Every structure is written in structure tokens, then in C-alpha cells.
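Researcher: Here's a chain I'd like modeled. Treat it as a single chain, no partners, no ligands.
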Amino acid sequence: MPSQPVIAALIVAAGEGARAGGGVPKQYRRMGGQSLLAAAVDSLARHPAVARVQVVIGVGQETLYAEAVRDRPLPPPVLGGATRRASVANGLAALGPEVTHVLVHDAARSAVPAEVTNRLVAALAAHDAAVPVLPVTDTLAGAGVLLGPAVDRAGVVRVQTPQAFRLAALSAAHDGWTGAEPTDDAGMVRAIGTSVAAVEGDRRLEKITHPEDLTVNMVTRVGTGFDVHAFAPGDAVMLCGVAVPHARGLAGHSDADVGLHTLVDALLGTLADGDIGQHFPPTDERWRGAASSRFVEFARERVAAAGGVIDHVDLTLICERPKVGPHREVMRARVAELLGLPVRRVSVKATTTERLGFTGREEGIAAQAAVSVRYPEE
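Model: Modeled as a single isolated chain. C-alpha cells:
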């Protein structure tokens, strides 16, 4: 085995997933502002051990796929087959010869916590295969018209994905498979005598099957933000992603969008993940003049990677001028677009301080925000 393994992530997203509703296959259903597939891609692509992410999609899903992954730097998707096994085989065939290990993940399980990937990669140092598992907590019994005998749950676990393999072991299982259709790849490698290590799984990897699975076991967190920017020379101010004509601009290292900056802080607050200055310090020249929409997208993706679902946004702009009312609906629409929300779940308000304080003296603009986000229960 090479001293430096090359690990690819293979995301299987070729199913129809009709039971999840929504009019599209479940891997394209949105949760936390992005699709389940996009969340899975992002969580695996950002892991330092993963060199490549390859997605397998269903025939006719090309447009849905393009909309879900947008401009992410991914190789072209591979078309799946008639069964999950065939789809995985097609994906394996598309991996380059440099790949030595593979993580096979079902897109219907959404984002992969980095801790799970760490445990799987560590297990591959000593085993040909490894899977994440969770204990069974419910009583198990035989099914039928009448309840059957109880099954000892102490010897049973729930198997999740991603499932990790040395590529040679998984390829051998696929190349020689003649049995009935398997439910997962771990079962295939076990069938040819390969042992599979079990590592601790994560509740955030629960499989999405029904519509209610998108929100089950969720807790609501509320984040708040506050920001201030002074006026500076200019002829417009950026507010909530909209250029509003004004006799002055706003001072700031980026585009100084006080509305979006406070929104970013509120979103990060739901994660206890610092503030905008921590992630985009004003001393970093990369962010000079940057559009604040980039910061919102960053925060939105952090929320989505944690399995969050943004429920509502309430933004208040505090200034004497410019007048916000004529631009309110455009601002709401822009914030909704950035977060992937219906406009009805975005509130943008304005108030003054009755000529009191720095905003009353028209020295600058302040903004505050409150957001509510649901996260999987830990």
C-alpha cells in the first residue's frame, strides 16, 4: 500500500427518491439553503484527506445536478445504472489510476461530519474496509400481523455511509459479483471474505427517506448580529446587497454592506462560530472591496454543512437617510436569493433614532439582525 494514499469520495446520487416528496429526487431537496447533494459534496471536498469528489447521477438529472453544484470545481458527473450496485460500479470506473482508496456516500444522507471522515480514514490504515455505525436504541421484534419475538439489539447496529474501502478490495467485490442486489458496498466486500471495521457514526448522517426526515430531531437556535459603518465619500451605499443611491458611501474594507455584515454575524452566532471579522479580517487584502454577498454565502454554507435549516431572517437598518422604504422589497428579494429562502421568510425593516446619537447626526448607519435556524439535535 502506498505511504501516501490517494482518497476519492464517490457520491451516489442516481436514485429517484420519490418518497421524500418535493417533486424532485430527494438528493436535490433543499435543506439549510442548499440541496442535500451540494451539502454532501461540500463536506467531503473540504476534508483535507479527500483528493477528489466524483458524483454519480441518474439519467435525465443533468440539469438538476448543474443547478445543485453550480460552479464547484468537480469532474463531470457519471451516469448511474439500473441499480445502486451498477451506479457505484460506473463511478469506480471513472476514478483515475492514482486513486487507492474510496469513500462511497449516499447523497440522501447529506453533509458528512469531518469527525466521521477522520475515523474512517484512520481505520483504513489497518483495514481493507470500514463503515460508520450507530447503536440501535429501539426494541426490535419480528414483524407480521402479530408482533413476533424480540431481537437482541445488543448485537445489532445501524450502518451508515460514507463507507470506506481500499479500492482494490471494493473493485474485486464488484468485478466478481453474481449474487442478489446488495443494499450497500460493505455487504459486497464481506461476501468475498473481506473484513469490515466499524467506527462510530453520527446522528447527522441519518438517511433522508420521507419529507419529515428533513426536519426531524431538530432544535432551534437564534443568532443575533449588530454592525456599524460610518459614511464616507461616494454616491451610493450597499444595503442588503442593493446599491442605494445616496450623497455618500459607507467606509469599510469590503463593500461595507452593513446589512449583510450583521446578517453574517447572526448566522455565525447560531453556530457559535465567531464573527465576520474572525473569518474575513480587515487586515487581509483579499477582501478589499469584496462583495459582502461572498461572506453571506460562506456563512450559509457553514450553516448547511452543520445540517442547519434557516427558518427566518429579521433585519433592521438604523439611519436617518437614505430612505429604505423604496428599496425594501428589492432588499428582501436579494437576501432571500442569497440564503435560498422564500421572500416571505425574510424581513427587512428600517427605523431612526429620532435624531439622537451618531445615526441621528447622519454620521453612519447601524444594523441589527436576528435569525432562527434549526439544527439536528446533538
